[in-house]
Design a protein that fits this description.
The chain is of the alpha/beta class. The chain is built from 15 helices and 21 strands. Strand 5 and strand 6 form a beta hairpin. The protein starts with 28 loop residues before the first strand and ends in an 11-residue tail after the last strand. The structure holds magnesium ion.
Length: 499
C-alpha cells in the first residue's frame, strides 16, 4: 500500500499570482458570496471537472458506440449522420411526443424541435400552453450532463431518420433504449476502455492543473476527490493528468487527502451507502467507530454524506465541492449538505466569447428598449387625444357649426397621422429588435441560443446555476488566479423597482 506523506505546508516558494485584472476566461463568477478563507476542504468531481474532455471526440465516440450497439440489438433505421453539437445542456426531452425543448426560468417552453424540425411558437403554445414543465417525471427528461447531450442529439437524428422513412415510432421507447444503451456502455466498461486506450485523444491536459492543486494545498486547504467513476478508470485518467507533473508529488494521489471512487452520486447525498476501503482488487467495508477517520493514502469506494462529513469533522459550510453536474454534484450537495458549491461549465468560454462579440448589439437592444417605452407612452397620449377629438367632433357636428367642425376635424386628422407615425416607428423598433436578438442567439448556438439565458430571462438551466452554484467558472485551474483566502462577492440583487 502506498503511503504518501503529508507535505509540509505552506510551500514558501509558491507565490500568489501578481495582483492584476483577471481575464474574463479565467474569472470565477459568484452567485453567492463566499470567503475562501472559511473553506477548509475542497472536493472535486473528476469527469468533466478535473478531466476536461474534447467534446467532439467524446460525443462522436458515444454516438457511434450507441448506434453500433442499438443496431446489434436490432433497432432499425439508425441515422447515418448525427450532428453531436445539435443539443446543449439544460434542454428537456418530451419522451411522449419526441420533442426536445428549451425552457425559461419559470420552466415554460420557449423553443422546441421534433427531430431536426423546429416547432413553431403556435405549435408549442398549443401543446404546452404556458404551463410549467415538471422535469424528472416519466414524460420529461432533463439533459443536464455533457454525456446526455450526445444521447439527445442521437435521439433527434433518429426520430428524423425514422419519420423520413415513414416508420411509425414510439419516441418514449426509442429514448429509453438510447438511455439504457448509454448507461450499459459505461457500466460494462466499453466507453471507459476506449477512452483509456487513447487518453490523449479524449482528454485535454490542462498545464495549470497541478500548480492549482499545489497552490491550494500550500494555502492550507485539504483536498478530496469524490467521483462516480470506478477506481481503474479514475487511476488511469488521474495518472495521465497529474502522474508526473510536479516532482514534489510522486503520484497523483499525493495531491489528495481523500480519494473516493464509485461514489454513486446523487445517491451518495441521499442514501446510507456503505463506505468501502479499496486496495487494488481487495475491498472491505469500513467499520465506523468513534475513533475512525480517513487515512491519507488509502482509497475508498461508495460511502454517504452523513458518514463522510462526520469523518471529516467539519461543518458543511467549510467544504467547497466543485463539479460539473448541476443535479448530481451541485444541487444535491447544496440542498442535502449545505456545502459551498462550485460549478465547472466548460461551455463558459464560448458563452463569454459570444457575449463579448454581442456587446454592441446588447447596447443597441437597451437603446431600442428605452426608445420603445418612450414610443409606447407617446402612442398612448396621442391615441387618447385622437379619441377626445373624435368625441368632440361628434358634439360639434350636432351643433351644425361648419367652421368649428372643420377645425376639430383638422386637429383629429393631425392626431391620427401622429398615431400612425408612432405605430410605424414601433414596428420598425420591433423588427430591428427581432433581427438583433436573432443575431445574438446565433453567436451562442445556431439552434438554441445561449446556454444560461432564454431571451431576456435566465434559461431554466441558468436559473439552476444561479440558485445552486455559489460560484461558477470554466475550468478548475481558474482557482490558480485567486488567493486561497479570496472573498468572492456576488453582485447585489436588484428588484425592478430599484433600477
Ligand atoms: Mg462529472
Amino acid at each position: 500500500m502506498l503511503k504518501p506523506e503529508q507535505l509540509a505546508l505552506p510551500f514558501p516558494e509558491i507565490q500568489t499570482a501578481p495582483r492584476t485584472i483577471i481575464a474574463r476566461v479565467h474569472r470565477i463568477f459568484a452567485n453567492q458570496s463566499m470567503k475562501m478563507g472559511d473553506v477548509e476542504w475542497i472536493g472535486f468531481d473528476m469527469d468533466h471537472t478535473i478531466a476536461m474532455y474534447d467534446p467532439s471526440a467524446l460525443d462522436s465516440l458515444c454516438i457511434h458506440s450507441m448506434i453500433d450497439r442499438l443496431r446489434q440489438q436490432g433497432f432499425p433505421h439508425a441515422p447515418t449522420n448525427v450532428d453531436p453539437s445539435f443539443c446543449i445542456r439544460g434542454l428537456v426531452i418530451d419522451k411522449r411526443l419526441g420533442h426536445i425543448l428549451k425552457l425559461d426560468r419559470y420552466r415554460v417552453v420557449r423553443k422546441g424541435f421534433h427531430g431536426l424540425r423546429e416547432l413553431s411558437p403556435d405549435q408549442l403554445a398549443k401543446t404546452y400552453e404556458a404551463r410549467r414543465i415538471r422535469v424528472g417525471t416519466p414524460q420529461f427528461f432533463g439533459i443536464d450532463t455533457l454525456y446526455a447531450r450526445s444521447e439527445a442529439s442521437l435521439f433527434a437524428a433518429w426520430i428524423q431518420s425514422l419519420e423520413q422513412q415513414r416508420h411509425s415510432i414510439d419516441p418514449s421507447h426509442l429514448f429509453d433504449q438510447i438511455r439504457t444503451c448509454a448507461d450499459g456502455l459505461f457500466r460494462d466498461g466499453t466507453i471507459p476502455r476506449l477512452i483509456t486506450d487513447d487518453l490523449r485523444r479524449f482528454i485535454r491536459k490542462d498545464p495549470q492543473l497541478a500548480s492549482t492543486f499545489h497552490k491550494l494545498r500550500s494555502g492550507g486547504k485539504k483536498l478530496f476527490l469524490l467521483t462516480n467513476s470506478p477506481w481503474p478508470f479514475t487511476h488511469a485518467v488521474m495518472d495521465y493528468l497529474l502522474g508526473s507533473e510536479m516532482p514534489e508529488y510522486p503520484t497523483w494521489r499525493h495531491y489528495f487527502d481523500i480519494v473516493i471512487t464509485s461514489a454513486n452520486k446523487p445517491q451518495f447525498f441521499l442514501e446510507r451507502q456503505p463506505l468501502i476501503e479499496q486496495d487494488g482488487d481487495s475491498k472491505r467495508p469500513v467499520v465506523l467507530r468513534a475513533s475512525t477517520s480517513f487515512e491519507r493514502g488509502k482509497s475508498y469506494e461508495g460511502g454517504n454524506l452523513s458518514d463522510f462529513t462526520r469523518l471529516l469533522g467539519v461543518p458543511g459550510d467549510r467544504i467547497l465541492y466543485v463539479g460539473d453536474h448541476i443535479y448530481g454534484d451541485i444541487l444535491r450537495s447544496k440542498k442535502e449538505a449545505s456545502w459551498r458549491t462550485g460549478l465547472v461549465l466548460h461551455e463558459l468560454d464560448d458563452e463569454l466569447r459570444a457575449h463579448e462579440a454581442s456587446l454592441p448589439d446588447i447596447q443597441r437592444l437597451q437603446d431600442l428598449t428605452s426608445q420603445r417605452e418612450e414610443l409606447e407612452d407617446e402612442l398612448r397620449v396621442h391615441q387618447t387625444l385622437f379619441k377626445d377629438q373624435s368625441r368632440q367632433l361628434e358634439s360639434v357636428r350636432a351643433t351644425r357649426d361648419i367652421a368649428m367642425t372643420s377645425a376639430v376635424e383638422v386637429q383629429r386628422q393631425l392626431e391620427k397621422r401622429t398615431v400612425e407615425r408612432v405605430r410605424g416607428l414601433l414596428q420598425s423598433n420591433e423588427s430591428e429588435t427581432r433581427d438583433i436578438e436573432a443575431r445574438i442567439e446565433q453567436r451562442f448556438h445556431p439552434t438554441w441560443g445561449p446556454l444560461l439565458k432564454e431571451g431576456t430571462e435566465l434559461s431554466s438551466f441558468g436559473q439552476q446555476v444561479e440558485a445552486y452554484a455559489c460560484v461558477y467558472t470554466s475550468r478548475v485551474s481558474n482557482l490558480l488566479f485567486y488567493s486561497p483566502i479570496q472573498h468572492f462577492r456576488s453582485p447585489r440583487d436588484l428588484m425592478p423597482h430599484e433600477f
